[in-house]
TrEMBL record, chain A:
GO terms for molecular function: hydrolase activity. Keywords: Hydrolase. Gene3D superfamilies: Sortase (2.40.260.10). This is LPXTG-site transpeptidase (Sortase) family protein. Coiled coil: none annotated. It comes from Actinorugispora endophytica. Pfam families: Sortase.
UniProtKB/TrEMBL annotation, chain B:
The lineage of its organism: Bacteria, Bacillati, Actinomycetota, Actinomycetes, Streptosporangiales. The chain crosses the membrane at residues 149-167. Residues 112-143 are annotated as: Disordered. Residues 1-23 form the signal peptide. Keywords: Membrane, Signal, Transmembrane, Transmembrane helix. It comes from Actinorugispora endophytica. This is Uncharacterized protein.
């Protein structure tokens, strides 16, 4: 029983850490609900703004690589993010997916601070048709790449949703990739027409 | 398959044209071909001493301006909606420096094809394979507050525990 003190302290620290993680990832009682804003007609997004983390970025279109993986925005263009153009557009019913790099080979990139977003934060998208729908963050999660939740990210939903994705964790210099993804789940709270 | 090949070609083209900014009065435009309403990146450089580059084009919704660092920089421009397909000149004027240098390039505006553009989407959008490799170059230093918060909470508990022990000892010795 001599080590009970330090062991109990460690358990308490872990418990507190778990509470923080739960507070960040909580997805209970999402915004909008069944009575949320009506979906918009499809129009390509051209700009992304997230005031809380200083994002003010043009959007380029992304498709699929020959191996079926998602294309990335140009690595050295630190101010750019990319929209998966074969999926839903922001404002349409369905999950619109926008990715951005965490860093470049020389410094920070557009989604460096994505993991700082919290439930209730606002994300704005400007679309080619001039509308500027707003999305409200529901939850933020970090996942190991081998456990990437493809169904949650890309799977069908009956409301306009937004997924913001970047990388995190440890950087493997051999592969040139990070070990984790940060995923932000949001849903439209104002169509901005 | 056609889509995959097109995507592959586009990805390769993106890599090829996304190199260092030109230093010969030309402008690197990424992507070289774009649809109306989409965003493009413009990279170029000016002679020493220029402060900014101002890009104009009949294809742009407005003037795209970038402040130069070491005489070079990247600007972002948005193409007008409803543009007719074709080749449009891009003109950049170096400002604030010793000369009135002009850099030039072109951008190819392609038809907003409903079969592959934003006006239609496959009935069942293809799900990309694996996890997005949107990390970058590995220069990131861990700043996500999730870990520091947990660490901070643990640290506070330790400090509180040490304080409690010290207090009890002080009380005991004070008796």
């Amino acid at each position: 029983m001599a080590d009970r003190g330090p062991g109990a302290g460690l358990l308490a620290a872990l418990a507190v850490g778990a509470v923080f993680a739960f507070a960040v990832d909580d997805d209970l009682g999402g915004f909008g609900g069944p009575g949320g804003p009506e979906p918009l007609a499809r129009s390509a997004p051209v700009h992304l703004s997230i005031e809380e983390i200083g994002v003010d970025a043009p959007l380029v279109r992304l498709g699929l690589n020959p191996d079926g993986t998602l294309q990335d925005p140009p690595l050295e263009e630190a101010g750019l993010a990319g929209w998966y153009s074969l999926g839903a557009a922001p404002g349409e019913a369905g999950p619109a997916v926008i990715t951005g790099h965490l860093d470049t080979r020389t410094g920070p990139s557009v989604f460096l601070r994505l993991g700082e977003l919290r439930r209730g934060d606002t994300v704005r998208v400007r679309r080619a048709d001039g509308s500027e729908p707003e999305f409200t963050v529901q939850r933020v999660e970090r996942v190991a790449k081998e456990d990437f939740p493809a169904e949650q990210v890309y799977g069908p939903v009956d409301h306009p949703a937004l997924r913001l994705i970047t990388c995190g964790g440890e950087f493997d210099r051999a592969t040139g990739h990070y070990s984790e993804n940060t995923v932000v789940y949001a849903r439209m709270s104002d169509p901005g027409r | 398959m056609k889509l995959l090949m097109a995507s592959g070609i586009a990805a390769t083209a993106l890599v090829l044209v996304a190199g260092p900014a030109a230093a010969d009065g030309s402008v690197t435009v990424v992507p070289r071909e774009a649809r109306p309403g989409s965003a493009v990146v413009l990279e170029s450089s000016c002679v020493k001493g220029a402060k900014r580059l101002e890009y104009t084009s009949q294809a742009f919704a407005g003037t795209a301006t970038v402040s130069l660092q070491d005489n070079a920089g990247s600007a972002h421009a948005t193409l007008k909606n409803g543009l007719a397909p074709g080749v449009y000149e891009v003109r950049g004027e170096c400002k604030g420096g010793p000369s009135d240098e002009v850099v030039r390039s072109e951008i190819v505006v392609v038809e907003d094809d409903p079969s592959s553009g934003p006006d239609a989407v496959p009935a069942v959008p293809p799900t990309p394979a694996g996890a997005p490799q949107s990390g970058g170059g590995g220069t990131y230093q861990r700043t996500d507050p999730t870990v520091p918060l947990a660490t901070l909470a643990g640290g506070l508990l330790v400090v509180a525990g040490v304080g409690l022990v010290a207090y009890r000892r002080a009380v005991r010795h004070g008796r």
